[in-house]
Amino acid sequence: MARAINQVILMGRLTRDPEMRTTPNGKNVTSFSLAVDRPGSDDSADFFDITAWEKTGELVNQYLSKGRRCLVQGRLSFRSWEQDGQKRSKVEVIANDVTFLDGPNGDNNGSGSSNSGSSAPSSNKQTKDVAPEDIDDKPIDLSEIPF
Q1: pLDDT of 90-137, one tens digit each?
Q2: Element (H or E) spanning 82, and its range?
Q3: How far apart are CA 4 and CA 100, in angstroms?
Q4: Which of 47, 66, 71, 91 is deepest in the core (most CB within 10 A)?
């Protein structure tokens, strides 16, 4: 039998500050919304509700705010409920990992990832954009690789 794959990767900007709350079982959960630009369009975006649990959610709540860029890796989740006699439903992304793409001042120096294995974003991690013309297309000599 074929196995189903449920994986989502989104990059965008937070549309509002994250909101963290604690469940009755004592687990922290953080909710935020992400605006993802549509390819080929200057002024339209898709909006996604994101839920991050425990350590990932705590780091998102601590380090991200409205307008900051991030990369979210997770899975789609569908839930339905009844409210005031009407059936409601929602599709959201459950984040497994959130990578912070802006530095603390909103600059483009990436500040780290919030996966549950890391304790906090690394402030000394720097990223650099590489233009396609900067890439050297020479073949790699595999005998020079030290491992």
Answers
A1: 999 999 999 999 776 655 655 455 554 333 444 333 444 545 555 555
A2: strand 69-83
A3: 29
A4: 71
Domain boundaries, the chain: 8-144
DSSP state letter for 102: S
Pure H helices in the chain: 54-63
**Residue found by looking up tokens 């990832």 in the block:** 113
Q: How many CB atoms lie within 10 A of CB 8?
A: 16
Instruction: For residue 127, give both structure tokens.
Output: 């990223």
| CA 83 to mean position of chain CA atoms | 30
Please indicate, yes or no, whether the overall pTM of this predicted structure exceeds 0.70: no
Instruction: Report the CATH number of the 8-144 domain.
Output: 2.40.50.140
Q: Which residue has the tokens 């497994």?
A: 96
| d(C-alpha 119, C-alpha 110), whole Å | 16
